[in-house]
Design a protein that fits this description.
Blueprint lengths: L6 H12 L3 H13 L5 E2 L10 E3 L4 E6 L19 H24 L3 E6 L6 H16 L2
Parallel strand pairs: 3-4
Antiparallel strand pairs: 1-2, 2-3
Helix pairs in contact: 2-4
Bound molecules: zinc ion.
Length: 140
């Protein structure tokens, strides 16, 4: 398989693989699966490679790391104290890319939602997120 990930995507993917945060992502996925929702993973043909794609419902879901994607008002999303300018610029680039991917997806007729990492890392939050994403996907 060709390596088409940017360094940012790769480091994000790596941080997911290394950290325990792969686990909550799997929990979210299996909970949605139990609800009868069928998805495809990391579809390369779509802008931003959404983490979950629900073709039957015309919906995509990104599972975003709070740090890399700068979740608003989230304690995980603090800009590091050293190299601040570097990080600010990096985050600004990430956000611009996120927004443009979402705009492109919507222009293609997809509905787009984001599940934030901090919203799936404990059981209570995960349950709420599963409910929210299920409602979103079914368009209810
Ligand atoms: Zn967060």
């Amino acid at each position: 398989m060709a390596d088409i990930m940017s360094p940012e995507q790769r480091s994000e993917r790596m941080s997911r693989i290394k950290g325990q945060d792969t686990c909550p992502e799997l929990l979210l996925r299996s909970a949605l699966h139990r609800k009868g929702l069928r998805y495809r993973l990391h579809v390369t043909g779509l802008p931003g490679r959404p983490d979950l794609v629900f073709p039957r419902h015309g919906a995509v879901v990104f599972i975003h790391g709070c740090f890399w994607h700068q979740h608003k008002n989230c304690k995980v999303a603090k800009v590091p104290q050293s190299n601040t300018a570097f990080w600010q610029e990096k985050f600004a680039r990430n956000l611009r890319r996120d927004h443009s991917n979402m705009r492109d997806l919507r222009a293609l007729g997809w509905r787009v939602a984001v599940a934030w990492e901090c919203q799936i890392t404990n059981k209570a939050a995960l349950d709420r997120t599963v409910e929210r994403i299920e409602r979103f996907v079914r368009g209810a």
